[in-house]
Specification:
alpha+beta; Immunoglobulin-like; 7-stranded mixed β-sheet; 5-stranded mixed β-sheet; globular; binds copper (II) ion
Length: 460
Amino acid sequence: MTRKILAASLAILFTVSMVFVGFTNDVQGHSLPVEDTPYDKSFVLCAYETMGQLIYPDNDIDGLIVGNADGVFYPESWTFVLIDEDDIQLVHPDNYPLSPGDGGEFRDHDTVNGQNHEGAHYNCAGEAVADASMPGPSISVDYGDVVKVTLVSDIDNIHIHSIDQHAINGNEHVNSGPIQQGHMKTWIWEAEDAGSFLYHCAGNGLMNLWTHINNGMYGNIVVQPVGENKAPTVEYNVMFSDMYTKNTTQTQAGTGNEHEFDLGAFVAGDNNIMVTNGQAFNYAPFIGADWNDGDHSIVVLNPLSLDPLVVDGAPILAPTNELTRWYITNPGPNNFLAWHFIAGQMDVRDGSTPKHLMTPVSNEETWTVPPGSSSTTETVFPSSGVYVGVTHKLNDIVKGGAFAVLACDVNGVDNLPTVAGVDLAFVCDADWDGDGTGGTLDDLNAFNAGINPKVNNKEI
Ligand SMILES: [Cu+2]
């Protein structure tokens, strides 16, 4: 890159950064006072740096997986956590003196319950974030809702965080701008477009935006349409993210294979891991068949446990012959996603179709979801059995980009085999909600909610 181009690039980056910084400073002068604007829904998000997440299952899958990936533990797992307004704690400045970089001023909208607390800091890392892990939550609102969003950056965070919400238009609504540790900000927007949209942390005025996404700071906002001709029976959220990790000398008690963000691999576009909802081969117990075909018999990827406290490869359960809606989100940071159901087709209700959720593109086989986007797809599973959601960019499957869906007949007994020790018929027909009757839609939803809570599935 010549010096001239470099200088021009820096000037553009600087200008973009100034837009964000400027927004943070002048929003209070140009927006309606938050306290005076009625709203339909309110969400409080905590930007939180949780330490340590297993992103690669601890199995012997050498030869199938690229690199030394077994049991990878990621020390810098950052996320958003949905909390209650009551969970925001006011921290007196005497307990947390201003750091030199603060300059003694508070530029954010520092209010709790409508009261100003000048000079105060805020903490959101109480019990509400005890189970925090990446990615962030799926947020659901209705078309036309006026939505109030509060972002609190935990006072113990090391980095400055922010949020960029793709569901809306206009800088005063979309971007929070950088929020310092211990600060918070509230703003309001209206849900004017139905569909599923990515939200993510944009770092500090775009600085290290890529690191924050790699580390897990993303989720999706679903704007539910009104007056649909045919609503789905169940909705599911799955987020695919390419990750770039390298071994680190950093050690943490109880772990043996810590990896940290690899900037060089990121720049080169050489991801070594692909996660679905925060883990490689999440919801994918095995690949291959039970018999030995020479070199490649069955390979256990992430063994199934029915204990909700054990990180495992429990499949996502879905009903047969019902409309299921899948919000497939690709936060990137880099890779295009070739979204596909092995053994299934899909209808797509997406940004490239008129009015998003209104007119589907039917009988698609594979759908491109670019980095920085979320697509709404629909599938009817015509018969019971295993369907596999994948990226059809196959080297990303080898890195973890696949998950299993077990479709179950909710009106009868499922005749399914036992594979790799997993009794599929039992999983379909058990009484997961404990009401005395097994194999119903409620049982499937109870299984997903208890064992695969990050699917965030929702019965309509
Ligand atoms: Cu961040």
